[in-house]
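Backbone-to-sequence.
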């Protein structure tokens, strides 16, 4: 008899709830470990080495202790045939993407999940933003997709991960705004249809392992157990994103649409370059440039980065990276290698996100924020990669072959060194890794002066970037 997956988290929704939903939809029974009720329990998991990057959720499954929510979801979906039947279906259906759909739901879920943690003076504003994003940005996309293909499910006319995650999002939004679907008749029918699938219907019954809307007790427990930089970072993210956010031919080079800087496009540039793929760029120089892309219908969720590739107009950074990595054999040879790669890259993206937001900090907060970057890099993230490389003694992070995990780790090391040049002084194996990966021909070329690699953001350009994305003006 197969061992049930075991979930380690507190007794509430948070980032574990979508994992519960996906396991339930797949008909997989799971157990919950002793719930985290105190900081001491959480620290014990860290001290025991059970949490790769000192973070929960953690799921014990198939002999692995998996962390990083997206990595866990990707593994479950792939294992239980909820991720499309092949790369093309996973990447493309009516010019839409499974990964893009689920990243849209996760953006929205993040806002809903963090709403109870809003300060009293921000609750009203965050509530309005949450409902506005659901009804103006996300739900219209799913309504249109269902209308355009006329099928019961979002992709491939079979149940997949987006169906599950969109239903979860709908039900959470309706807890705060019961009429949220009033102008979306196809989503109303979709909700009824997916809710009646046997595994999901069972999960929606009273007494299941589905968690209820967080109350004050849960908020207090989470603040006590997980008083972690990620909660503050994500709340800051919501505050800073109260603003929003002839095209190339189907064939030829990928074309990247963003501003002339790093941001969330830089890792995409790195991965294309590492794969030896030449690409073109079209820069958004003004707010009007971004609005035109939105008005012309090129941005699925009204956001950039956007990449034109293989006849698709792709948005959502992770969806783009997943597609490029899959297409160019940089994503492992099997499901377990991909799971490990996902855990590694999600952690680099966590650290990159903190570094990316450093220029946005007010002057009085910069020194403290920089210290936090260095502390997290040297005590949470880099020790994991140092140990992984030391333990297996191979040249690459996963499977002794070059993968996106190597590319994204090198990118992270280099931008961390911009914060503190000797940041690798206590990590000799990572120093050797850096030298080795930097000398791979495609990457060596990308690191040369005059390449499409972008420099750190010039403080003089910050007002321009904030104007393009309307940051702080809504």
């Amino acid at each position: 008899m197969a061992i049930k997956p075991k979930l380690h988290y507190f007794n509430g929704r948070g980032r574990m709830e979508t994992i519960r939903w996906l396991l339930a939809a797949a008909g997989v029974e799971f157990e919950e470990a002793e719930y985290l009720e105190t900081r001491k329990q959480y620290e014990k998991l860290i001290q025991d080495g059970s949490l790769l990057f000192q973070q929960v959720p953690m799921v014990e499954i198939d002999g692995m202790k998996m962390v990083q929510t997206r990595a866990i979801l990707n593994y479950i979906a792939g294992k239980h045939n909820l991720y499309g039947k092949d790369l093309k279906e996973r990447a493309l259906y009516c010019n839409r993407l499974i990964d893009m759909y689920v990243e849209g739901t996760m953006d929205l879920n993040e806002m809903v999940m963090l709403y109870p943690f809003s300060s009293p003076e921000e609750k009203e504003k965050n509530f309005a933003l949450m409902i506005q994003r659901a009804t103006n940005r996300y739900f219209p996309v799913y309504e249109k997709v269902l209308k355009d293909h006329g099928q019961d499910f979002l992709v491939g006319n079979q149940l997949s991960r987006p169906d599950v995650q969109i239903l979860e999002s709908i039900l959470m939004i309706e807890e705060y705004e019961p009429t949220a679907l009033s102008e979306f008749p196809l989503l109303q029918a979709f909700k009824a249809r997916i809710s009646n699938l046997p595994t999901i219907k069972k999960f929606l019954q009273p007494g299941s392992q589905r968690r209820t809307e967080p109350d004050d007790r849960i908020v207090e427990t989470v603040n006590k157990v997980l008083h972690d930089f990620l909660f503050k970072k994500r709340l800051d993210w919501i505050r800073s994103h109260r603003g929003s956010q002839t095209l190339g031919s189907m064939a030829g080079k990928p074309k990247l649409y963003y501003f002339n800087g790093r941001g969330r496009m830089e890792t995409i540039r790195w991965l294309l370059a590492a794969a030896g793929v030449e690409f073109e760029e079209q820069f958004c120089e003004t707010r009007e440039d971004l609005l035109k892309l939105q008005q012309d219908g090129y941005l699925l969720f009204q956001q950039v980065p956007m990449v034109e590739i293989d006849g698709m107009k792709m948005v959502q950074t992770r969806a783009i990276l997943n597609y490029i990595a899959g297409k160019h054999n940089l994503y492992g040879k099997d499901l377990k290698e991909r799971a490990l790669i996902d855990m590694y890259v999600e952690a680099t993206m966590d650290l990159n996100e903190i570094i990316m937001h450093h220029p946005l900090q007010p002057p009085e907060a910069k020194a403290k924020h920089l210290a936090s970057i260095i502390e997290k890099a040297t005590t949470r993230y880099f020790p994991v990669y140092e140990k992984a490389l030391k333990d297996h003694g191979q040249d690459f992070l996963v499977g002794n072959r070059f993968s996106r995990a190597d590319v994204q780790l090198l990118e992270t090391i280099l931008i961390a060194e911009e914060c503190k040049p000797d940041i690798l002084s206590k990590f000799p194996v990572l120093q050797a890794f850096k030298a080795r990966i930097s000398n791979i021909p495609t990457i060596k070329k990308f690191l040369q002066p005059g390449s499409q690699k972008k420099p750190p953001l010039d403080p003089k350009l910050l007002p321009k970037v904030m104007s393009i994305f309307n940051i702080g003006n809504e």
